[in-house]
Design goal:
3-stranded antiparallel sheet, about 40% strand
Amino acid sequence: EEWDINTIDIVTNVEFPETQSESQREGIIFLRKLDINDSRLYLVALCLNKKVKTKSYEYLPLLANNLKNVIESFE
C-alpha cells in the first residue's frame, strides 16, 4: 500500500529448500485486497500442491469475490 500498487490480485512464486533432498519445493502465494465499506481485509493463500496450483488461478479470485459478498451481507 505504501507504494500505491493497484492490482486486483498479486500472485508470486515461492521456493522452499528441502533439507533432506537437493530439490526445492515450489508454490504460489495469492494475495487479494478486499475493501468492504470502511474496512480493508486481505485474503492470503499459499498453495504448495502442483495439481491444485493451476486450479488456484481460476478459483481463488472466485473465492475472494464470494467472501466479499458474504461479509458485505452481514453489514
